[in-house]
Design goal:
The chain has helices spanning about 1-15, 40-60, 85-90, 135-150, 185-205, 215-220, 240-245; strands at about 20-25, 65-70, 100-105, 155-160. It is α/β, with parallel strands linked by helices. α1 (about 1-15) runs parallel beside α2, α3 (about 85-90) runs parallel beside α4 (about 135-150) and α5 runs parallel beside α7 (about 240-245).
Length: about 250
């Protein structure tokens, strides 16, 4: 933690006044994002605490965002810890003292942003149902409830990565593990992204939102699993989501 804090502090000092926010790690509840070390929310919060102090000493005005967890839909404690369970463990380890905002990666899979995971069904897209991890709204509201329960409701959630995947008009089908994306259309991707922003504005407890992603289709090829989330096609032409976000009131 000390070595990491030294690095974070030096970086924050160098970019003081030019970088407004820092997210400390991402998806640390997933084994390969935690260096294949034993998963531990307490160890993460320890790392965060050192980074927070170093960063604030170097640039007191910078915003520190906790590393966004990934909704895994599993909780074996080895490959992954359920994101909600991990977030509670982070709070019990002192998270509230060491961040200005809470990071989140709310995945939507093949479900609209306003769908309620407890009741939503779609015969044309039957997979990824019945668990909040598969729903934008389920993840966002679940995190918010935990924050309020631990007395941290004054902070905002920052979706530092979110989106919906579709391979329509990319010239490729979704790769294994991402077949649900073949059930989404480009028009749905556009409507759902805009809808998510509208919901966040209405909630009032959401900070900046970062759509994932812009250009993985041209950068990595249309068959890459990341390409479906992109809002540009492989030839750099805009998808409907690009135009919808461009036209959306900001």
């Amino acid at each position: 933690p000390l070595t990491y804090a030294d690095f974070i502090g030096a970086m924050a000092a160098y970019f003081k006044g030019r970088v407004q926010a820092y997210e400390i790690w991402i998806e640390q509840n997933l084994h390969y994002e935690w260096g294949n070390e034993p998963l531990s929310a307490a160890r993460y919060v320890e790392l965060l605490s050192y980074a927070f102090v170093a960063l604030k000493n170097a640039d007191p005005g910078a915003t520190v965002v906790s590393g966004a967890l990934t909704p895994t839909g599993m909780n074996d404690g080895v490959i992954a810890i359920d994101d909600r369970a991990y977030l509670e463990q982070m709070y019990r380890a002192g998270l509230a003292r060491y961040c200005d905002a809470v990071g989140v990666h709310p995945s939507g899979y093949n479900n609209p942003p306003d769908a309620d995971w407890r009741t939503w069904s779609d015969p044309s897209a039957p997979t990824f149902k019945g668990h909040p991890s598969f729903f934008f709204r389920g993840t966002m509201e679940g995190y918010r409830n935990i924050m309020v329960a631990y007395g941290d409701g004054g902070k905002r959630l920052w979706p530092t990565e979110f989106g919906w995947s579709t391979f329509e008009n990319l010239g490729a089908s979704a790769p294994a593990g991402y077949e649900y994306a073949n059930q989404n259309t480009e028009e749905e991707q556009a409507a759902w992204l805009v809808g998510a922003f509208q919901m966040a504005r209405a909630w009032g407890w959401v900070g900046p939102m970062f759509v994932w992603n812009l250009n993985f289709a041209p950068a990595s090829g249309p068959g890459n699993e990341k390409a479906g989330f992109g809002i540009l096609r492989a030839d750099w032409s805009p998808r409907p989501a690009y135009s919808a976000l461009q036209a959306m009131p900001k």
